Each structure stands twice: as structure tokens, then as C-alpha cells.
Amino acid sequence: xxxxxxxxxxxxxxxxxxxxxxxxxxxxxxxxxxxxxxxxxxxxxxxxxxxxxxxxxxxxxxxxxxxxxxxxxxxxxxxxxxxxxxxxxxxxxxxxxxxxxxxxxxxxxxxxxxxxxxxxxxxxxxxxxxxxxxxxxxxxxxxxxxxxxxxxxxxxxxxxxxxxxxxxxxxxxxxxxxxxxxxxxxxxxxxxxxxxxxxxxxxxxxxxxxxxxxxxxxxxxxxxxxxxxxxxxxxxxxxxxxxxxxxxxxxxxxxxxxxxxxxxxxxxxxxxxxxxxxxxxxxxxxxxxxxxxxxxxxxxxxxxxxxxxxxxxxxxxxxxxxxxxxxxxxxxxxxxxxxxxxxxxxxxxxxxxxxxxxxxxxxxxxxxxxxxxxxxxxxxxxxxxxxxxxxxxxxxxxxxxxxxxxxxxxxxxxxxxxxxxxxxxxxxxxxxxxxxxxxxxxxxxxxxxxxxxxxxxxxxxxxxxxxxxxxxxxxxxxxxxxxxxxxxxxxxxxxxxxxxxxxxxxxxxxxxxxxxxxxxxxxxxxxxxxxxxxxxxxxxxxxxxxxxxxxxxxxxxxxxxxxxxxxxxxxxxxxxxxxxxxxxxxxxxxxxxxxxxxxxxxxxxxxxxxxxxxxxxxxxxxxxxxxxxxxxxxxxxxxxxxxxxxxxxxxxxxxxxxxxxxxxxxxxxxxxxxxxxxxxxxxxxxxxxxxxxxxxxxxxxxxxxxxxxxxxxxxxxxxxxxxxxxxxxxxxxxxxxxxxxxxxxxxx
Length: 748
Hints:
By secondary structure, this protein is mostly beta strands. Among the domains are: 29-259; 595-748, no CATH class. It is built from 2 helices and 77 strands. The strands form 6 sheets. It has an 11-stranded parallel sheet, with no helix packed on it. Strand 41 and strand 42 (363-371) form a beta hairpin. The two termini are 60 Å apart.
């Protein structure tokens, strides 16, 4: 039998938060106990003491107790039952649900006897705590057969004197915790399964064993959440079962042992993570691994995962930290096609005499290497980086077999597939000229410095044009020839400490004149830039948004001159653009959520908002002129808290709508109505505010006609523009009065 465990919808607070002897509403919980060790139907009222069938369907709340002993007996279901609490503590009792479900809103205690179904449809669903205990004497723990269990609360395995039997049963645990403290085992048979939910931690606090009885199909334990061993200096063992890890297995103390994972093959499968702490061990028995597709962390000098010692190929993530060193298996090369992380204080050593296959000639290719400690391999002398390499902190180093740096005296090129990152205060100075090729990426985090050696050049800057490569700068990039007039690559200044400096320590972008057609210049997370000349944007200019502190709203670009754009200008998350001269959009789109301080003319398109929220504001501090042929792009939407909304164009100055001829109408409005937005007559959207208005938008507007006899009509006031849903007839005083009554306020 195989069921897919799906946690049930949360039971109401009235059901779950029950006090002893009462429900949360204050009503009593009525006890009903099976009176004698005699078989019968659950539906027989005289079998219970006091008389009456325990079933919440009659409007009461019940605790059913099956504790009486003296002879073997069976209690059979004839339909679905619902209880508040249930206790099975009799060694002589069998609860046979047949094909019917039992739903218990609060707690269930199973200490002895058996509970069973028909092997296909019967389920026990528990909203509160599910407690497995044992009583003194033989057959002292419960047996579960031929059914499903959905445990939506916490689960406790407290059985001490006997094993809990799970036979042909699917157990799904979806609460916050499942804790195994008892010394008794768990025995699984006939293809039984245990599934740990994504939000559940299964904590092994006893040195007990979960095993296969060797009866029927092999059982399976699936970890979608966390399996941890947090107590016990001995061994907690899963023996003979299929263990599937889609979540995290963490060994904090003692040993967690299993026959292996992934069918016992030589590959640790993808999808799961493993963390072994200091003085703890993960034991896969006889299984040895040569390939890692998972996420493995050895944390602490004495963390042990012996099966992993033979790994020669890393396709997943492998991390060593807290003083844990690792030397690859004797006599074998090592390949990293995934992520290899070596924290400060740790050493990763490719076996002496063997090869890190990522390194050939003078090029490191493929894989990700995050180094805070030491990465060492024979012959290391990296000139070209075609892999991803991060140096994290002052102690980060890559060395050859003699301990000499593999980077300091050689690294000269970040190839098209390469990514070099300095973080955690790590600095790097080249030995000569340096090149970032094509799509190669250089990242310098806050507190770090990348310095092209004095007297040498960053070759990406021929004739003051910054070309090729991707540069993500939160810290400092410095080169003697770093005086940039044209940005024609991808350059991001990310954060208030981001700076590009020439050999004298001056701002390399102060003389910027052009963002070229291939250029993307971004200011994010509080970055500021002052440009001393006119600026021509042919590519993309992005101000604000992105990164850890997205939308901080303190990103500022100041242009001491005129700004002309034929590309894209975007303000994200409250960024600010200040132009001392005039700002002219000749082509492309001016869009965003932020503030422009300039007298602005748009010949192309203006679009308030970023698309992230339906109520953002693009503010113009100055006059705004929309020339003939230009477009005002408007999106109409709804918000659960605000109702009907649209992004707002807020002009703190005069809005001028120019036409080609004095008698013609002005620019156009392009309207997009979000899918699923149902509009009706009288609905209104505030789309623009201004201090004064000259001219009118052209009619008809694109997207004006909504169907079903409705259209959007522009309604002007001296300081605002609204789009109002009306029937297709000339505006009447009644319609305008309707507008005045229904026009909602909008965020400014």
C-alpha cells in the first residue's frame, strides 16, 4: 500500500487548543471507556461506560478510552468517526477501522494493542499530539497494520519496553516536531512508509533502531524536512530500510547509522543536505561513495563521514568548516563540477601527486570554489580563471604543493565563463595587466579592494571606454588607467561604499559622458554617483532596487549638466536622479518608482511603476513636457487593501501636452488593464497629478474600449487626471457628478 502524505488543512482553534477536560470553547470533553474485554461494534452504546457512542458527530466532544484487559477482543467500525481525544492502552484490544476513517481533533495516545484498517483506504488523522508509549509486560507497544496515519501535530516516540510495529501502513508526519526519546525500536514491514514533512524536524534523542522485519516489501523512510540526532552519545540506526533524503540530515552528537542511501550505490543523490558536527558521525555502513550530487558539510575537526572520504567527483556542494581538513582519497584525481567551500581555518588538499582536473595548463575551468581557508593542489599557477572563485576574508588562499600562492604572481585574465569574487575583507593586487573578457564577472564586495598593480592597466579601458566584462562593485576597484568617459559594458555600483578609483584615488566616473549602446550602468542599495558633464544614455541607466537592501530609496545619480537618452532610464524602489540642466528622452522608455529632479521632455514613452506593485509613483520635480507622438503608459489594477489602483505620475510643476499642430490633440495614453480586473461604470483611477496643465491627450486612447458597452474616459481637473469607466455616450453632468462621488483617493 502506498499513499501520498498530504498534511490536512489546519483544524480549527476550537479543536486544537483544548484544555484538560474541556474544549477551547469551554464545553466539556465527555469520557467514554470500552467497558469489558468483549468484541463488538464501535456503534454499540451499551459497550461504553457511560452508555453512549463516542462520536463528535452528535455535537458533543469525546475522549474514547480503550484500556480494559483480560481477554483478546476487537472493536470494529461501521462508519467514519470523529473524536476530540483517543487513548489505546490495552494489550488485548484491536481497533479495526475496516475501510473507515478516524479523525481525532486533539491528541492520540497509542501504548499497546493494535489499530488496523483494510489495507487500502482507512486513515487515522490526528490534529494534535500523537504519542507512542508502552506499558509494562509482554506485547507492550502498539501495532499498526494496513492503514494510513496523518499526524498534523507533534509526534513523540516514547515506547521503552517493546518495539512499535508499523506494518503495511503509511505514516505522514507534518507537525513541527517528531521526537524519539524511548529506548524501544520501530519495526517496519510489508512496504510501510514514514514521511517527514517539509516543516517537520524528526529528532533522534535515543540510541534506538528503526529496522525492517524482512517481511514483505522493503519499507521506506522519506525525509522532506529535517532528521537530526541531537542527543545520545551512542548510535541511532535505520537498518534495512530505503532512506530517501529530500531535506536535511544533521548529526549533532553520537552516530547516525544507516545501510546507505540512494540504493546503496556510489553516488550520493541530489536533493538532500547532510551536516555532521564536531565529534559526531554519519555512518553509511559498507557503502562507499565516489560521486557527490548532494549538499554535504563537515563542520568541526572531528566530524566523521567515512563513506565520503572516497569521493573523487563533486557535482553538488561540499563544504568543510570549523577546522575540518580534508585530503582526497589516495591515488585519485579530484573533479569539482559543483561547489567546493573551504572556510577559514580549514584546508582542502588534493592528494599529493594527483590532479585537480579543473586545472589544466594555467587555466582553472568549471565549478565553483569558495575559499576562506586554503585550497591546495599540485602545480597550482592560475593565469586564466574560467571557473567561479571566491576569496572570503584575509586568510583565503589558493596554493601549490609548496604553499606558494597560485594567484598572487599569475592571475591575469577572467575568462568569458569566469567569476572572481572578493568578499569578507579579502583584497587582491594583480602582478601586471588584467583583463575581464566578454561575459567574465568581477565582484568586489564591501570592505574589499581589487587593485591592478601600479604601473599596469585594466585592459578593458581602451581610449577611456569601459568595454567587455561584467563588474559588480560594492567595495573598491582601482587601476591607474581607470578614467572612464564611456561605459559600454555592464557596471553595477552596489551600496554606499562602491567606488571606482584611478591611480590617484579620484572618482573614475566623474568625467562620464556616455552609456554606450551595450552599456548597463546600475546604482543599487544606496550607491551615489556625481557626474561632472552632460550624459548621453544609449543603453540602460538603472537607479535603485536589487540586492540585499532592495528599494532602500537612497540611490542617487547627480548629473551636473544635461541628460539625453535614446535608451532606457529606470528608477527602482525610490531611486533618485538629479539633473542640473535639462533631461530629454528622445527614444526608449522612462519608467520606474522614484524621483527625477529636472525639467524633463519626453519624445518617446513614460511609464510610472516598475511592475512590482500596482501603486508605485514616478515623481518629477520640475516641469514635464510630453511631445507630440509620445506615449503615457498606464496600467490599471486592483489591490486587496487599496481597491482600484494604478501607478501614478506625480509632476511637481507644469505638465505640458504638446501637439504637432496648434489645433491637434497631444500625446497618447496607452492603457493596459490587468487580467481578471472586472470594471463597472463609475470606477475611477487617478493616473497623474500636476501643479498646472497645458493641452490634452489625444483621443481615442489605446485600450480605451473595455467591451460590454464600457469605455475609459479621461477626466481632467486643474491638478489631476483620472480615467473613469463610463458608458459610450457623451459626458453628462450626471456622469461627472458620479465621478466626483466615486473617485477614490490614491497614494501620493
